[in-house]
Amino acid sequence: MINGKRIAVVMPAYNAEKTLEMTVRELSDVVDIKILVDDSSKDQTASLSRQLGLLTFVHDANYGYGRNQQTCYREALAAGADIVVMVHPDYQYTPTLVPAMAGMIASGVYDMVLGSRILGGGALKGGMPRYKYIANRFLTFFQNLFLGVKLSEYHTGFRAFSRELLETLPLLENSDDFVFDNQMIAQAVIFGFRIGEISCPTKYFKEASSINFKRSVKYGLGVLGTTLSFAAHKWGIIRIARFGAQGRKVHQQYYSETTIRGF
């Protein structure tokens, strides 16, 4: 808890058995709620999660990274979280920064905080493939231009959110795939939420999850599409549910589409 705010860490997981314990062991005592959502892994991720004392939910099928996050946020809000930090259980980002990120939101200054791999210049040193780094810089420049903000990167998977933001954004209108992350930032911008960044080292190694070149291209095209649809909605060319106040939100019922078993 920070400044009277309950802190939840959520971990969207898929085949994270080898790195989950390392991630959990580095979580700070300020974390009040620890949730893992297993997207129907083929290994023992869910079993290990329960052994580590995490509140564990298991999808009955592999629905995708975006859908996993929807469940994460729904369960964190239901558990009474005021601030939610998403930590990938693959140990690519350091969990020791959770208190700092949550504190930036607990201070009332920001509504969303991104752990940036670019600030501090450690991305390539941490093993980020050069083609991903180049794509990151190009896409970030493109989005800063169209979204009217100035972020160092849009593609980190280490993020913190206020409860108000999670209850406001129409997250159920977003993709079930990896572009969900990018769509969420665009939504935060159009709804007027304040976004901060913190420098975050990153580690690329065999057990850390990473999308391949083909999926990276698909993600990049999704980012371009998200940016252009943001601009079209903002300029009144077309109305898009993802960016509208009436879009479907995570506090609304959605279990009719996703079966969850809680442990």
Short summary:
The protein has 263 residues and is of the alpha/beta class. It is 37% helix and 15% strand. It has helices spanning 17-25, 45-51, 65-78, 98-106, 130-147, 163-168, 180-190, 213-234, and strands spanning 7-13, 33-38, 55-59, 83-86, 112-116, 159-162, 195-199, 260-262.
Walk me through this protein's architecture.
With 263 residues, the chain is of the alpha/beta class. The protein has a single domain, classed as Spore Coat Polysaccharide Biosynthesis Protein SpsA, Chain A (Alpha-Beta Complex), CATH 3.90.550.10. Helices cover 37% and strands 15% of the residues. The longest helix has 22 residues, at 213-234. The protein is globular and about 50 Å long. Residues 255-263 have low confidence and may be disordered.
Taken in chain order, the helices and strands follow as EHEHEHEHEHEHHEHE
Instruction: Specify the biggest β-sheet.
Output: 8 strands, mixed
Q: What is the CATH homologous superfamily assignment? A: Spore Coat Polysaccharide Biosynthesis Protein SpsA, Chain A
Mean pLDDT across every amino acid position = 90
* Spatial strand sequence of the major β-sheet: 7-5-6-4-1-2-3-8
**How many helices in DSSP terms?**
8
The CATH architecture can be given as Alpha-Beta Complex
Q: What is the name of the CATH class?
A: Alpha Beta
What fraction of residues sit in β-strands? 5-15%
